[in-house]
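User: Can you help me understand a structure? I only have the sequence.
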Amino acid sequence: MKKMPKVLVLIEASREFSRGILSGLALYSKIRGPWMFVMRPPFYVEDTLDSTVISWLDTLTIDGIILQARYITDRIRKSGVPLIAMDANTNLKGIPKILCDDQRIGQMAAEHLLECGFSHFAFCGFDHLTWSQQRCDSLRQTVESAGYPCDIYRQSQQGVAQSWTCEYSSIIDWLAGLPKPLGLMACNDDRGQQILEACKIAGYSVPEEIAVVGADNDQLECALTAPPLSSVSLNLEKAGYQAADAMDKLIQGKKTGDIIVDPIQVVRRQSTDIVAVGDADVSTALRFIREHADKSIQVNDVIQVLCVSRRTLYAKFHKALGRSVHDEIVRVRLARIKSLLTDTQLSISRIAKVMNFTGPDKLFRFFVRETGKTPTEFRKDTVGYKI
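Assistant: Let's start by predicting it. Here is the structure, written out as tokens:
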């Protein structure tokens, strides 16, 4: 009988990033296993992690360890057990790592904000974290290549030691000195949530004055913000599957390299659901379209809220956006449908009702016409990972 690998997994599962990696490990075990996963004890068990790990290493004959870098101790290093590290902020010589393509993440966020029409940009991250700095550099290079400046938030000398709560005042002071409207990238969704809270405290309108995009697409955290946070989604399950495959090679005595987490797309939510324009009529029309995206509105509905003729509005739209009023209605409705497909488990029939289509067949035809894919195909390609 084939020996079942015993893999110790020391990953905090409270964030979607970690849960996505764990999902990939489980998928690998299901297809190529089975494996035995030894998990960290739950928070309500009174025990120290160090003593528990030592006990496991001594008694369970662990074949490999996949863990967050902060859990690496001298005892684990000297155990001789193959390691794969996650969340490594420094170089871990000889240990394969699960790393994000941070340059591409920053670039995708920048391209998203540029598409929104902004001419002023900013980045808020953590100065002491390498991945945050890489996302920052990529965003800045992308917007500067497009001919625009980018302001960077710098933490105080206290750095990490500065209270998360106390930092709100520093962020608010920084935001006050920036031109509006502003397209801002937060290094991740934690920082994005903090920025949105700071905007509420300071009285800034989101996304009209400050549009915010995060990264990692923690769906629960993004949904709990007000307004919901746009974010760069990552192919986490694929990376988890590849990490398991790499661990399999290490257990067999083979060499392997780092695992790269690829970004998929920017999941557009209300925090960036805007096109920055100077024309007041176009801005009002865009806000109306956004607020009624779940309704089957027509061009005449938009004209009725404005004191301009159809010809004038069409001319204004083409000058400001390069597209028609009808095209904008379609774009916004399509974006809302995509968000429901990727952020919820609602059935296609239920999404059709939410978006006020007369039936799922009408939604189906609309989506295929605009994307070339069925709603189910889009959901699988975006959320799921195909082996």
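Now, to help you interpret it: The chain has a mean pLDDT of 90. The first strand starts at residue 6 and ends at 10. Let me know which part you'd like to focus on.
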